[in-house]
């Protein structure tokens, strides 16, 4: 299994994940935990975390779960994602716990639970990846 | 109906849309057309446009369709989104044509077709908004 | 291209499609048009067409679009579906126009627009299939 | 909280749920457990449980979770559903464990894990309901 530091080092090489500021805060047998700090640049018209940041972090949570699962040996690409929004992030962090539900021969599916800094459920996602 | 320039002026006040570089290129009775130029900061692990940028642009395409529909008179927030990825963006632009399918009393739904610079279909989305 | 009658003959061999009563009413270059008549057995707690019937008909609309595209030469299976409900069907028919958006080497994606008997938009779906 | 028998009595009044044969096998604080036995009429072109039955059972799993939550006091209707298919049901039962993730003032969201008779994960869903 990858260490948290190894996965963070990899994430830091990824331009868009770096732009939004993705931090790896946990690596588990079944997935990873990522987070992203709200800052001015990530806000929407309502002054809260933009939905696109949720989507980017959820996508990364499943992508990094697969990177961890395959220990960098397979490339993957997103087939589709579905995300429900429950709570706005008005301050602090958006936290995403990705978990692999199914890893097949050509496709993999992960779920993501998203939380605010108070550990309230802020969103949920189901994401399908293709194994290249 | 809003003009393209009026909508661009509004988009320019939105921090995250400005960060990724959202341009308004069309305003129609049923929706809007947005685009985003690929640049280094928006790339994923494969060197192509990050899926989170597609999601952000798709979300904005329906959100701005609603802003146009209501001429700034109602605030809206994303309930959920679903996005399929067809083609990577390796250079040039990602283009999103958002179209309102249904505007009810409390909810609205839009579809988005996404294209690369060669006008090939690069993705498709269905997005639900809540009218606040 | 298959004829409407050839596709109807195939649909009639499918147990669940027969149970809900799927009729083929159009075969096109890019997809098919199916419909299903509301009857007592297909109702939900509100006395209207059950959401599961919409899902079954939408799934069939993309599946039959692929059967038509491949002229029975490939087997396919649903990877995932997403469906938005706009209007209840209180009488008459639920109509589904399926359209293939993308047919790749291993995956295909179709969209579905669903209508009531008055040709009002009653739902929309995005569905991913795997080509076996 | 409703008893399993009370909820089964209600489900038995619902025409489409009766048609596919929905059984209530568990009622919990956060949701319900339903199942459906494979029989000839529920099969697809591959001879396995039709995807529309998964969708119908998943929809019912969240719907009945809400009926239980509100103890019959509120009517609800499906806004949208998203379902991923992992395994075919070739014999035995399809089991759906619905769980409410979020119950707001006007919307509610539930997740569903679906299993085959061997308790292997056969599908997963995220479903949004409107509270009428």
Summarize the topology.
Four copies of one chain form a homotetramer.
Chain A: H1 4-11, H2 15-20, E1 22-28, E2 31-37, H3 51-69, E3 76-85, E4 93-103, E5 107-115, E6 121-131
Antiparallel strand pairs in A: 1-2, 2-4, 3-6, 4-5, 5-6
Structure description:
The structure is a homotetramer of 132-residue chains. By secondary structure, chain A is of the alpha+beta class. Helices cover 25% and strands 42% of the residues of chain A. The first copy, chain A, has one domain: Thiol Ester Dehydrase, Chain A (Roll). Chain A has three helices and six strands, in the order ααββαββββ. In chain A, strands 1-2-4-5-6-3 form a six-stranded antiparallel beta sheet. In chain A, strand 4 and strand 5 form a beta hairpin. Chain A is globular. The mean pLDDT of chain A is 97. Chains in contact: A-B, A-C, A-D, B-C, B-D, C-D. Chains A and B meet through helix 2, helix 3 and strand 3 of A and helix 2, helix 3 and strand 3 of B.
């Amino acid at each position: 299994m990858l260490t948290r530091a190894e996965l963070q080092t990899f994430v830091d090489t990824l331009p868009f994940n770096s732009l939004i500021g993705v931090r790896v805060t946990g690596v588990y047998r079944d997935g990873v935990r990522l987070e992203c700090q709200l800052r001015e640049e990530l806000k929407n018209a309502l002054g809260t975390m933009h939905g696109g940041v949720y989507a980017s972090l959820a996508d990364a949570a499943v992508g990094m779960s697969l990177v961890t699962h395959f220990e960098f040996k397979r490339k993957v690409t997103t087939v589709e994602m579905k995300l429900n929004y429950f709570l706005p992030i008005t301050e602090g962090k958006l936290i995403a716990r990705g978990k692999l539900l199914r890893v097949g021969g050509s496709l993999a599916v992960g779920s993501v639970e998203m939380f605010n800094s108070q550990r309230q459920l802020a969103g949920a996602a189901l994401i399908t990846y293709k194994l290249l």
